[in-house]
Amino acid sequence: MTSNKGAGFKENNKKFDPLNQGSKLGVITEEKTQSSPEEQTKEMEKGVNFLLEESTRLYKDRKMNIALEKAKEALNKDKTLRKLRETHNTVDQINMDLTFSVCLNLALMYEANNMLVEALNTYEYIVKNKNYPMAGRLKVNMGNIFYKQEKYVQAIKMYKKGLDQIPKQYKEMRMQIMKNIGHTCLKIGKFNDAITAYEEILDNIPNHTICFNLILC
Prior knowledge:
mainly alpha; Serine Threonine Protein Phosphatase 5, Tetratricopeptide repeat; 2 domains; 70% helix; 0% strand; elongated
């Protein structure tokens, strides 16, 4: 009742060892630190998501430079994650939605930092990827960048390609793109094309500003 040795307490190392496992304890601890390939990929995927969330949070806080760095880290980590899945023959488990989000966020962060060439290159990579069939809509984003660069002909081209990707039931979205086309045509003196765009908008959605622009054309 009073002895602690029988209960497994050893005076020499002050360790409670009721089953007299001794050195076996170290082996058990070592096994727990080793994670399986599945656990490694899950942890890495969590890391990518964390960096993605950090980037968007920093963007909202107007910390554009740091937001871009986090976006780049997320891309690099996602690349490492995909390589790890390829190594362990689990390519079918690659999260394409996550990769798309990482690439899109990077393009947006480049744009926010006025790195327009880099943003265009990233958008181009997404649009050309056959794994993202809906990515064609991002050509509107590319059109906006060309507009900022005063490359109005390319901007109109991209707006029209983006418009082709939008189903007819998304009327407001389509009319917003048509407005971009009309404004850009007006910018370079293509008045007939601008009139066509503005008239199509007014046939679907009444808008006083569009009426004024149409009168000017």
